[in-house]
Write a structure and sequence with these properties.
alpha+beta; 2,3-Dihydroxybiphenyl 1,2-Dioxygenase, domain 1; nine-stranded mixed sheet; eight-stranded mixed sheet; about 35% strand; Glyas_Bleomycin-R_OHBP_Dase; Glyoxalase_1_CS
Length: about 280
C-alpha cells in the first residue's frame, strides 16, 4: 500500500455528521467492522488498527437529514490489504443479511458497495496488483464489470470474521461537486493531484504516485448544485495527508495565490474546495 504513504498526497480519514450516533455505532461496528478508538457523548472516533482514526462520527444539536442534490460525499472507500479479506467481508455481509448495493470488478480493483441509512455511500475494496493496471496516454484504464462473487467467496469462507483487518486504510474519497472544471483546477493546480482518468464531461479521477485514484469528483447530482447546510447529515470534512511541512507551506502559498481562504485551527489548516467541501490539510 505504498500508494498511501509519503511522498504521495492522499485522503486518510473522514468526519461525518450523523442523525443518530448510537444507531451509527451499531452499524459501523457490527456491519462494517470498525472499532471504537474514543467515544464522547455526541462524537466517536472509529479505527481499524487501534491507533489511527479512519472515521469520526458527530451528532450536533439540531442535526438535519441528509439533503438531496447537494455537493458533498458520494462515497468513502475502505481499502483492504488483499482479495482474501474482501472475500471474508463479503461472506460476513451475506451472513448478516445486510443489503449489498452493488459489487463490481473495475480492472484495477474489486469492490463491494453498501449504504448506511444516513445516505452515505460506502465502498469496501481490494486492489488488483498494480503491475496489472493498464495505462494509456497517462490515463488508467478502469471499467465496471460483474464481480466474480463465487470465486471471491471461496477466498474468504474458511476464515472467521473478526472485523476489518488492522491494516485497512482509507483508499479514496469520492465527492459530488458543483462544477467539474473548477473542482479539477482546485485539486490539481492547488493541491498537487494529477488527473488519471476523465469520464466524458461528468467525472474526474485524480491521484498522486500513479494510483488509480485517491479522490473522485463527479457532477452526478447536477451542475451548479449548492453545498448542504452546516447541520445536514453527511460529510463534515475529510483529511488530506501531506508528506512534510515544506509541501504544506507550498500548497498554502499556492492556494493563497488562487484567492482560496485558509483557516488555521489547533495547528491544522482547513480549506473549502470550490463546491464547499471542507478539507483538513495535515502533515504525515
Amino acid at each position: 500500500m505504498t500508494f498511501h504513504q509519503p511522498p504521495n498526497i492522499f485522503a486518510a480519514s473522514i468526519n461525518l455528521i450523523v442523525e443518530d450516533i448510537e444507531k451509527s455505532i451499531v452499524f459501523y461496528q457490527g456491519i462494517l467492522g470498525l472499532k471504537i478508538l474514543q467515544q464522547f457523548e455526541q462524537k466517536v472516533l472509529l479505527t481499524a488498527d487501534g491507533y489511527q482514526p479512519l472515521l469520526t462520527l458527530e451528532q450536533p444539536e439540531g442535526v438535519l437529514p441528509k439533503e438531496s442534490r447537494r455537493t458533498g460525499l458520494y462515497h468513502f472507500a475502505l481499502l483492504l490489504p488483499n482479495r482474501s479479506e474482501l472475500g471474508v467481508f463479503l461472506y460476513h455481509l451475506l451472513r448478516t443479511g445486510y443489503p449489498i448495493q452493488g459489487a463490481s470488478y473495475h480492472l484495477v480493483s474489486e469492490a463491494i458497495y453498501l449504504q448506511y441509512p444516513d445516505g452515505n455511500g460506502i465502498e469496501v475494496y481490494a486492489d488488483r496488483p498494480s503491475e496489472e493496471w493498464e495505462w494509456t496516454e497517462g490515463q488508467v484504464v478502469m471499467a465496471t464489470e460483474p464481480i466474480q462473487a463465487q470465486d471471491l467467496l471461496a477466498q474468504g469462507k474458511e476464515k472467521e470474521w473478526l472485523g476489518l483487518p488492522k491494516d485497512t486504510i482509507m483508499g479514496h474519497i469520492h465527492l459530488h461537486v458543483a462544477n467539474l472544471k473548477d473542482a479539477g483546477d482546485f485539486y490539481v493546480s492547488g493541491l498537487g493531484f494529477n488527473i488519471v482518468q476523465k469520464l466524458s464531461n461528468h467525472a474526474l479521477f485524480i491521484s498522486t504516485g500513479e494510483y488509480h485514484h485517491h479522490i473522485g469528483l463527479n457532477i452526478w447530482n447536477g451542475e451548479g448544485i449548492p453545498a448542504p447546510s452546516k447541520k445536514s447529515a453527511g460529510l463534515h470534512y475529510f483529511t488530506i495527508v501531506l508528506s512534510d511541512k515544506e509541501t504544506l507551506n507550498h500548497i498554502i502559498s499556492t492556494l493563497s495565490s488562487m484567492k482560496v481562504k485558509i483557516q488555521e485551527e489547533n495547528k491544522a489548516y482547513f480549506v473549502h474546495d470550490p463546491s464547499g467541501n471542507l478539507i483538513q490539510l495535515k502533515v504525515h
